[in-house]
């Protein structure tokens, strides 16, 4: 029919024009994407809240879509835990120059009455303040006693938990997860220290732990197995999993996220505590030791998303980034792709989502 090349060109232009018109009309009728991008279920809609992470020696914050990154605090190390108190952001962690540790510290960042930024470091446990117990190089956790906080009982607003050890002749002979109430100034709201007269110690030897939302149970990893310790009854309940690390309790208390790690594969999984059923959120495989490693999941406030660390050990890209994913496995997104996250110099590590 179209033997004349000129006719062929003319009809091609007409066909393209009709196609573009139809596409434009279809797009005009299509509803807009929900906030946070496509994908259904938990992965598509990004909830409110602030993601906290550590990068280049600072605790930092960003929106859940990775935007508006800003510095928060410096001076504490070891994946410092964080909390909000009286409108101020507090971070707690260990601080040391050379071993042994110099103690447990909290760092606050807030805006004063003149609108100027303020950074304050408060010593929580100095060497010798807790008898012969030493603060171990470990994760530090905020534990909130919400009823006491609401009632303002004893001037406390939650607790801080840490791993402590005792030594004899330079060797560790005892260890325990400890917690103590946070003290604060009733007039200014500023944290002033810990009530070391009320330290509780639990016979759990692990630096890889997390507290249940109500502050009565500890999920901890030891020898690549995760167990739950009930601080009220003393009962210990192993969970049905193997090669598991980095437990993270969901805000509703119904699930625990963790990393199942093998020689050539890592999987971030969740376990329902009532039924013990498990689900895989995401996984990576690697060749030999080169490739991706998954670490340290943290829950979103609505328990529908996770953030986690992904380390890449390929020689061509040595990096440590913070990723966000829905618990349905959708919308897996690198939140720190826009900054330098070299694995050995400026790694990014997730701290939490509030």
Q: How would you characterize this protein structure?
A:
The chain has 354 residues and is mainly beta. It has 2 domains: 72-207, no CATH class; 208-354, TolB, C-terminal domain (Neuraminidase, 6 Propeller), CATH 2.120.10.30. Helices cover 9% and strands 49% of the residues. It has 2 helices and 26 strands. Strands 8, 9, 10, 11, 12 and 13 form a 6-stranded antiparallel beta sheet that branches. A 4-stranded antiparallel beta sheet has the order 3-2-1-26, with no helix packed on it. The longest helix has 25 residues, at 5-29. It is globular. The protein starts with a helix and ends with a strand. Residues 1-43 and 146-156 have low confidence and may be disordered.
What is shown here, in short?
With 354 residues, the protein is mostly beta strands. The protein contains two helices and 26 strands. It has two domains: 72-207, no CATH class; 208-354, 6 Propeller (Neuraminidase), CATH 2.120.10.30.
